[in-house]
Amino acid sequence: MAAMNYKLEKLIGLSKPIELLGLLASWLLVGGLFLSSVRATPKAYAVWIGLASGLSFVCLDWLGFFQLHVPKPRMSGFVSLFIALPVSTFLAKWVVAAALPAARIGNAEALLAVVLVGVIFGSAQELIARIQQAIGAQCTLLTCLAPEDLAALNAQIKDAEAAWWVRVRPLEKNPLLPLGPRRSKQAVVISKRTANDLKDCADLISEHLSGRRIVDVSQLLRELRGRVDLSDPDGWSFLLASTPQLLHIRLYFYLKAIVEPILAMILVAAFSPLLLATAAAILWTSGWPVIYAQERVGYRGKTFMMYKFRTMSTHAEDSGARWASDGDPRVTPLGRVLRKTRLDELPQLFNVIRGDLGFVGPRPERPEFYRMLSEHVPLFSMRLLVRPGITGWAQVRQGYAASVEESRTKLEYDLYYVQNMSHKFDFRVLVHTAALMLKGGGGR
């Protein structure tokens, strides 16, 4: 099932007023329940509730909750809720304590508020989704498309399981009729073939003046799929649809290269009991070696040794390198569990410390696979323009690739990531990854 991608909401003009009101109402309800029992002054308590609700909305928006969870609740949405609420609640608590020293909001009260707001708001979102599904579609796409483009759009909406909330109907082409009311949940979808001459676009200009958004079908399909279309490698559209690499985004990637190795060292220390336990389990069940080092092609074509917990038998590649497949007999019973939960990737924290990998980016390929795929898949080398990662957009949306065709699809996801690189996108990939680990999906 395809989740809504993070630029789709902006593209077709959806808004979040119901979710914002629901979050604020949840905090006010929790605030009313606590008001008589807290030790803080009413003023400090009100400031805390207001600040926590505002920060939680910002955090949820950054983590993509309103795209991952709405209109249909998903595991990724619940993960973003689990991350955003504690961070925003305790941050608001510390800010209030610093600004109003007399305020006394205990950790237990803050933690209970997190749990209650999560339960109330999560339940409200589930209810909203059911109500929206019961009353019908919430977004209308008015199309002015060639038959093949319309067929592709309808097929993608069906594939994304969005037919219950996205309605497609033709645009009435009569610019002389009175303009209808502006509807924020309506967008006009066009293509180059249907709007290639300005003299034939009076009806589209009329729709633009009425306040409706005009959307290119190729861009809409790209956002619905979450990947570019390599069958039409249009550099013009790719560059114009890319996220502008503004100063704050470039600063994020500069700081990321500095902070990630430090964060990786902290995570190695934090997960050292798990690392040791996993190593001991591999040693007990299948012997040495515990760590498997494999050559990979990294940033700008530089090769490096990538570390993983060994999940296959020691003779898995005696006949040469080959892709893993579903139910691969070379994978050990313990290795199957490690792959499903992604725990086999933990040693790659050492690659992050060395600077070979980041936390988020395209997954690095083995040299022999890279050479073969570069010959069969156009633009495959473009993956090397950014630093590879432990997890990536292609990894969470498609999983492992075990053929040339799957690698082509994976490249489409990777190029979508290259096109839209930003701090928000990285955070949302991490949320997707956490959800996959909880579900045990994506491994072979």
Order of helices and strands: HHHHHHEHEEHEHHHHEEHHEHEHHH
The spatial strand order of the largest sheet comes to: 2-1-3-4
Please give the share of residues in helix: 40-55%
What Rg, in angstroms, do the CA atoms define?
25 Å
**Content of β-strand:** 5-15%
Largest sheet: 4 strands, parallel
Residue stretches low in confidence (pLDDT < 50, at least 5 long) are 1-6, 175-184
Structural class designation: alpha/beta
The helix count comes to 18
Name the shape in a single word. Answer: globular
Number of domains: 3
How many strands in all? 8
Lay out the secondary structure.
Layout: H1 8-12, H2 17-34, H3 42-62, H4 65-68, H5 75-99, H6 107-135, E1 139-144, H7 147-159, E2 166-170, E3 186-190, H8 202-209, E4 213-216, H9 217-225, H10 235-240, H11 247-270, H12 272-286, E5 291-297, E6 303-309, H13 333-341, H14 349-354, E7 358-360, H15 367-376, E8 389-391, H16 393-397, H17 404-419, H18 423-439
Parallel strand pairs: 1-2, 1-3, 3-4, 7-8
Antiparallel strand pairs: 5-6
Helix pairs in contact: 2-3, 2-6, 3-5, 5-6, 5-18, 7-9
Describe this structure in words.
- The model is unreliable at 1-6 and 175-184 (pLDDT under 50).
- Strand 5 and strand 6 (303-309) form a beta hairpin.
- This protein has three domains: 8-135, no CATH class; 139-226; 247-439, no CATH class.
- The protein is globular.
- By secondary structure, it is an alpha/beta fold.
- The protein is 54% helix and 9% strand.
- Helix 5 runs antiparallel to helix 6 (107-135).
- The strands form three sheets. The protein has a four-stranded parallel beta sheet, sandwiched between helices. A two-stranded antiparallel ribbon has the order 5-6.
- The chain has helices spanning 8-12, 17-34, 42-62, 65-68, 75-99, 107-135, 147-159, 202-209, 217-225, 235-240, 247-270, 272-286, 333-341, 349-354, 367-376, 393-397, 404-419, 423-439; strands spanning 139-144, 166-170, 186-190, 213-216, 291-297, 303-309, 358-360, 389-391.
